[in-house]
Amino acid sequence: MWLAQPLLTLKLKRRGQQEPGYLHAMDERFGRYTSPVPAHDGPTVWIHAVSLGETRAAMVLVAALRDQIPDMRLLLTHGTATGRAEGVKLLQPGDLQAWQPWDTVGATQRFLKHFRPKIGVLMETEIWPNLVSTCHARQMPLVLANARLSEKSLRQAQKLSWLARPAFAGLNAVWPQTQADAQRLNQLDAPVRAVFGNLKFDANPDMRQIALGRTARARIGKPVVMFASSREGEELALLQILKAFRPPAHIDKAQAAINNVVSDIQWLIVPRHPQRVDAVAELITEQGFSVSRRSSWGAQGPATPAQSALDAAASVNSVAMSGLDKTAAGDAVPTIWLGDSLGEMALYYGLADVALLGGSFKPLGGQNLIEAAACGCPVLMGPHTFNFADAAEQALAAGAALRVADLAQAVSDAAEVVVDAKRLATARQACDDFSQAHRGATQLLARAILHVMIASVAGLVRTG
Asked: What is the pLDDT of residue 438?
């Protein structure tokens, strides 16, 4: 890890060309800090939320910990630029934010000496051997909250069991999301204390954003299907499928009816990684569609179909022409909406009648569908949901999600769902029931963390 530091620096500089946030305070990655930490009367509680999803999950936990420990100071660390940008929303006056230290003994020692946290809370999956060992040596409790471990990750860890087992065993407590996660973590000797459920069920979506989205959808007057948190390769596959739904006129009536519905849907793509937005916009135009970006909508929301047709017709000469761009009959270029903003997933789910789950149509493990359900947006998911297997199966059983074989079936089934008012209403109610049934983990977890911290101060926490 020490020898790899120059490679990390090079990677950060390259990543920073697309996301400047990675170039901010790079010395923090190596445990070097320019400003002293101000004195504070209460304990410093360190929470590590590596990326965007973990940071959003941490929001409800931070609020609950502030209730349990009113005088706490939050130290929030991250590994990605999107996570750090989102984490600013959690900070109050006096709180601290920094990059996660690179996993060398020196960097982690300097990090702990500088900030002096009373407890460290790692969110979901972030286990680093040197970090665990350094915390253990300093007798500072380190716990894993909202923990998850897929079968794939377990197999990888078992191949490096000489490294993974001591790292998991060196934690003071682990609270998994599900019983299946608990069983897998036990195989790595992790000190599993209790299964409380998933914090993300307790997160309340931005109702104002949802209302804005639903109002805009009603104004548009046509069904909206969203590709939520799409991954590289999935957008191209969707666009090619949509092009295929404009076949010759000699097809049978049933297929023609499906094609008409698919063509009349307003498609919305929201990439998982914001640095890919420009590339996805270029891809959309290359495939013969017009693109309307969220950043261009303004306060009034997306354009109506009539306005979109005018805009698309005006830009026809600047778009790579295909059978979709301009037919002999003078059809307008179909417009794809593109979500290019951060922190507005509730708006996008409010806009959508249903969502296709990104990362599940290629062997990438899928994305979390809990936020979609909380916003009342049913999900169609592909075969690959191993990163969130239990949540996916629970949503499927509740009727809040539908499993499909591939992306082509997802497009076809979405077209059927959005025109079936009764089926859509049933699925939306299932989303609400699913979300409500799994709430309550946050308070249990906050109390458990407080207990570990108090026990540590009293010298009762296991240290080896």
From this structure: 92
